[in-house]
Amino acid sequence: MLCFGLNISLGSVSIPFSATVKSLLGYPVQNDSWNYIIWNYRVPKAFTALLVGSGLSLSGLLMQTLFRNPLAGPFVLGISSGASLGAALLIMGISLFPGLMAFGFVNDVSLAIAASLGSFLVLLIVMVVALRVKDTLALLIIGLMFGSITAAIVSVLSYFSDAEKLQQYIYWSFGSVGNLSWAQLLLLFGILLIGIILSIASIKSLNALLLGEKYAQSLGINMKKYRYSIIVAAGLLAGGVTAFAGPIAFIGLAVPHLTRQIFNTTDHKVLLPAVLVYGGILMLLCDTVAQVPNSASVLPINAITSILGAPVVIWLLVRKRKMIF
Amino acid sequence: MKGKSLNAYKTLELAAMVSIVLTEPIASKNVSVLELVALGRQPYTNWIGTLTQKDKSKILEALNVLELIELQHKKCYELSDGQLQRALIARALAQETTLMLLDEPTSHLDLYHKVQILKLLKSIAHKTQTTVLFTSHEIEMAIQLCDKILILGKGENHFGDPCELIEQKAFEKLFPTDTVTFDARSGSFRIEK
Fold first, then answer.
1. What's the pLDDT tens digit per position in A112-128?
2. Which one of A130, A161, A311, B33 is least enclosed by Cβ atoms within 10 Å?
3. CATH of the domain at A243
4. Residue pair B62/B37 in contact by the 8 Å Cβ criterion
């Protein structure tokens, strides 16, 4: 709540904290434009940050448990690059195929669908490979390779597309939690809600997966069914977030680790809600830093999450000497 | 099993009948002993895995049988190999099945812990309604501790009481006699010098 208030009270236009609180509580404030800024710009942005942080963190938790790998996350396994590919194909690819112009037009819904489809595609490929490759380290490398492939396709697309489209894509890839209307916010919330419900339904199998797939099977878990529902959940969460906010790094990887450290448990009944809360808070903090309070410039959120996230992971490794999940 | 093909059972039905202890390590060593053993109750818990009073007493019982009460809040990566093996057996015991399958439960343990594990398994088999079936290379210990042995040899597989098997000279044929021979009187192998 405090982070929420802090996030809203800080921004390019300086609004006193007391006025922010008044406005949020529905009291009249001295300046009408303050009210407008808060309700139409800052509050949606704060909610977006919450959703983005929660969604990415939960997706990271699911991936880490499913792949039994502490380094797994939406970014590392190529899900985010898949979403980038989907977005790039939509933004820049469509102009290359004029025939498709009739069907596809770039709006937020189609962008969200394209990014989600892209992330699903990559996730499914990684999953199929995971069935063949037992070594999780190899799987991570494969995920990175997919990242390279999608990056290559994106650069080919960028080469052929015009400056305006390119800029649109680059801005998307910086990541941003601003610019979402209430309607878009609702759509993102809907997508994430499905992901969260699927995750909650898989809590038992996630816990069993801590022992490995064979043990999970012996405990009566239908692995085929749950593997797919976990993947769909992770894809929806990461894909949905990436579609609306761009590829945001590190939150998905770092938050599950932070949460495990704080709660000292591996039970997903505790971890799942905790990860949602911490992810939201961390993302709010990152966004607060990114908007550089009282200045007109807004830094790319992606830069901030990496600058804050990477040292956290390093610190965890150094302190524990090993990364246990 | 019980006159039905294994494939005819649902995963959950089978989970209430057969528990396993594998040689491969568990995926996350960050689970505590208590959490690990509690996972054994999964076939009986509701959709989100809430433990009932009965579940809790079964978990406590399993911890007791395997002498893990003091270790219950330790994480698995803090345990020695022998302790971890006991925790895994406790998990299988908490699953309350009629059959417990173990794949080489005593490999990479020292002699003392091998005997400890096998004696615990024997007491589980005798005190609870559980059939404990395990694979092992420890023939001499198996002869001393097991109720029944199935020898997987080349061509023929003998099955029966250890004493019967010795009388049948089933152990003699296991290894080339120029390297080791079986001494029927002591029930152990002798190295040919």
1. 778 878 887 887 887 78
2. A311
3. 1.10.3470.10
4. yes
